[in-house]
Amino acid sequence: MRTRDNNKEELVKETAIKMIVKNGMEGFSMNKLAKECGISVATLYIYYKDRDGLIISIASEGGKMFNDALIKGFDPEASFEEGLRVQWQNRYQFNKQHPHLAMFFDQLRSSSYQKEFLSGFLQEFRQLMGKFMCNIIERGEIEEMPFESYWSIAYSPLYALARFDYEGRSHSGKPFVLTEEILWETFKRVVKGLKK
Predict the structure, then answer these.
(1) Range(s) of the domain holding residue 134
(2) If I label 136, which of 22, 37, 55, 63 is the partner at 20 to 30 A Cα–Cα?
(3) How many CB atoms sit inside 10 A of residue 129's CB?
(4) Do 86 and 125 share a domain, yes or no?
């Protein structure tokens, strides 16, 4: 039986992520992945049972990394603005350090893997965020609202900016690079929109 090669396994995961981001889930297969990596298809099956196993494994590992990034320095007792600032900083840094993985998550969210992907991680983060939300509502810092409404206002602008940055252009087609100045100016407007 052939043994696992950690470097080859990392190459497989990184290549799979890039291929899925570029071509979507429909255009992804183990045969195409093996060819892109310059290895045999049989080698892939040393690491993964099948295509689904590979995608779920990448999602699980990436999800743990994302969870760890989100909770870094996050205090559920913080004020609304400070807690949200930490979240923006953590999410911004994660997107900068792992741009392909962040776009891979977008692919998962609109695929048949969505339910399994979302249920498999962020447990610790959800607990901390739930406590944070209760605290800021109890202190009267923001209005009570459905979490989905809060998330849409609090984070959608950040993710739109990150996507423009990843693609290197805005909706108008003009070149775009996300700077700290643009990031934190947008953050100020989000805070202003959510604060009581």
Answers:
(1) 63-194
(2) 63
(3) 20
(4) yes
- Alpha-carbon distance 133 to 131, whole Å? 5
Token digits of residue 165:
């940055």
pTM attached to this predicted model: 0.89
For the chain, 196 residues long, give each residue's pLDDT as a single digit of tens.
456 678 889 999 999 999 999 999 888 999 999 999 999 999 999 889 999 999 999 998 998 999 999 999 999 999 999 999 999 999 999 999 999 999 999 888 888 888 777 766 677 888 999 999 999 999 999 999 998 999 999 999 999 999 999 999 998 999 999 999 999 999 999 999 999 9
Task: Characterize 175-189 residue by residue with b for buried, 16 or more Cβ atoms within 10 angstroms of its Cβ, and e for exposed.
Answer: ebebeeeebeebbee
In angstroms, the CA 194 to CA 151 distance is 11
Q: What is the DSSP letter of 5?
A: -
* Residue where the block lists tokens 């981001």: 21
Q: Are residues 102 and 169 in the same domain?
A: yes
Instruction: Please indicate, yes or no, whether residues 33 and 83 belong to a single structural domain of this protein.
Output: no
